[in-house]
Structures are given as structure tokens and as C-alpha cells.
């Protein structure tokens, strides 16, 4: 019979492997779903807009209180109401929006 320590270590290792596989699967499923939505005719921007909303919140949370000009720039560039309207009317400029977020 194997010592309990070895079985415990094996169990922990298996749990870590399983956890990694689950994370990878969820990650891939998310990006596959987003790609599928954006490739649809007409494109479905609902998940992309939610993702942009989260990105906006993260960017704003990283700013210092004195960085008002940058805060205003982010608020204007990622105006979620405007982006939603643009998406609904097929006028969303995905490339320029992507470049803004990545820069």
C-alpha cells in the first residue's frame, strides 16, 4: 500500500492538471463564441460590448485621481451608449476601437 503522502501529492497534481484543462477549455470556448458572434451576419456585438465595458472599468480603475484628462478621453472613446447605438446601426468602427484599446 502506498504511503498517504504520495497519494495526496498525486491527487493534488491531478487536481491541478484538471483545473488547468478546465481553464483552457473555458478560455477557448469564450474566444470561440466571441469570434462566432462577430463573424455572424449581421454581427452580434453583445459579448464584445460587455468585454469593452469591463476593459473600460479596468482602465478607469488604474487611473490616479489627478489623471482627469485621460479619464475624460477614455470615457469619450468608450462611451458604451454610443458604441451600442453604432453597433445596432452597423456603424461600429471595430478596427479603430481595437487600436484605441490596445494602444
From TrEMBL:
<dbReference type="InterPro" id="IPR008862">
    <property type="entry name" value="Tcp11"/>
</dbReference>
<dbReference type="GO" id="GO:0001669">
    <property type="term" value="C:acrosomal vesicle"/>
</dbReference>
<comment type="similarity">
    <text>Belongs to the TCP11 family.</text>
</comment>
<protein>
    <submittedName>
        <fullName>TCP11 isoform 19</fullName>
    </submittedName>
</protein>
<dbReference type="GO" id="GO:0010737">
    <property type="term" value="P:protein kinase A signaling"/>
</dbReference>
<dbReference type="Pfam" id="PF05794">
    <property type="entry name" value="Tcp11"/>
</dbReference>
<dbReference type="GO" id="GO:1902490">
    <property type="term" value="P:regulation of sperm capacitation"/>
</dbReference>
<dbReference type="GO" id="GO:0036126">
    <property type="term" value="C:sperm flagellum"/>
</dbReference>
